[in-house]
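Here is the promised in-class demo. Please do not try to memorize the tokens; focus on the logic of going from shape to residues.
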């Protein structure tokens, strides 16, 4: 028997080792041979440094993804002004699925039923987020929808604490409060007028939260390539169904949508969801939600640069609050301890 220290972020050969509640975990020689001698041994110092490195890398890549989502917000908004939104979503995700399927076949591990089921669940929540937000915009203002959708930063830690029994540090709690205040200032300009679309926007936030939590949990024990393939396929299928219900044809050529579709499918879908699914192995659900709070910041900055839209005083203060909350959330936790 071999005894060693191990950390939560340790993944060996794309498989997550089940942790012991003690500070050490015992592996028999049988377990060692199953990994073909490629078990990675960590002492406390190296394990802590490796975990922090993965965490910072995940934060940077997730922030990059959020930047692309924020920038493409204006692109999508302009695209759906001339075509049904479910038609655009269907074409976007069908193209994305066609692009990512060969990647999953080439890079992914063997596809099993459990991975398919997890991908379906993720896809349903992801489609719900897009659908509820889109319909909400018919009845409510963009500011209300943006703020309520951003409230997933509050819902994620609440769901994680209730369902997964996760404890939140004081710094993360403060970051959540700061980010919510920033969202209200940025999206609502310091005020909020209620209307009937707000409930749909809140349901969007619930779907975003559940998708984020499911991604973080499922990716620990399933191949992230196939999880991404399946969920994008489900969104494409449900978006197609949504378009048909509305009496719209999906397989229609719209020349003006070529550039928006390529940008959204390749950058904001294939790249973005591969990054999210893979990087949530190394960073908590709440940290991810806090990073995603910067999407309206990037969207507003891009609109300011390209469309000459002004944020205003409240907007700038809100953006700074959100960025501050994100930075606080990814700072090293002094209470970090090995399992």
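The designed amino acids, position by position:
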């Amino acid at each position: 028997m071999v005894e060693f220290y191990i950390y939560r972020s340790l993944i060996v050969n794309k498989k997550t080792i089940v942790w012991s509640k003690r500070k050490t975990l015992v592996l028999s020689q049988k377990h060692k041979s199953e990994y073909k001698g490629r078990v990675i041994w960590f002492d406390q110092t190296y394990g802590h440094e490796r975990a922090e490195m993965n965490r910072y890398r995940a934060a940077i890549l997730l922030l990059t993804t959020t930047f692309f989502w924020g920038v493409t917000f204006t692109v999508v908004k302009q695209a759906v002004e001339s075509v049904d939104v479910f038609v655009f979503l269907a074409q976007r995700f069908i193209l994305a699925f066609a692009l990512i399927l060969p990647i999953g076949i080439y890079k992914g591990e063997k596809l099993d039923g459990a991975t398919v089921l997890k991908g379906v669940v993720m896809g349903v929540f992801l489609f719900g987020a897009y659908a509820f937000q889109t319909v909400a915009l018919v009845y409510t203002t963009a500011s209300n929808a943006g703020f309520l959708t951003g409230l997933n930063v509050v819902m994620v830690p609440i769901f994680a604490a209730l369902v997964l029994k996760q404890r939140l540090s004081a710094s993360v709690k403060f970051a959540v409060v700061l980010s919510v205040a920033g969202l209200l200032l940025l999206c609502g300009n310091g005020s909020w007028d209620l209307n009937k679309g707000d409930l749909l926007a809140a349901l969007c936030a619930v779907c975003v939260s559940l998708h984020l939590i499911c991604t973080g949990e499922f990716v620990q024990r399933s191949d992230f390539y196939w999880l991404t393939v399946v969920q994008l396929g489900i969104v494409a299928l449900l978006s197609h169904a949504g378009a048909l219900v509305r009496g719209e044809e999906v397989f229609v050529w719209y020349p003006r949508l070529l550039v928006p579709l390529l940008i959204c499918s390749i950058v904001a879908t294939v790249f973005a969801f591969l990054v999210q699914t893979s990087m949530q192995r190394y960073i908590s659900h709440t940290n991810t939600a806090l990073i995603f709070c910067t999407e309206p910041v990037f969207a507003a900055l891009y609109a300011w640069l390209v469309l000459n839209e002004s944020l205003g005083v409240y907007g700038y203060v809100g953006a700074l609050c959100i960025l501050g909350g994100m930075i606080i959330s990814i700072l090293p936790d002094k209470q970090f301890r090995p399992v």
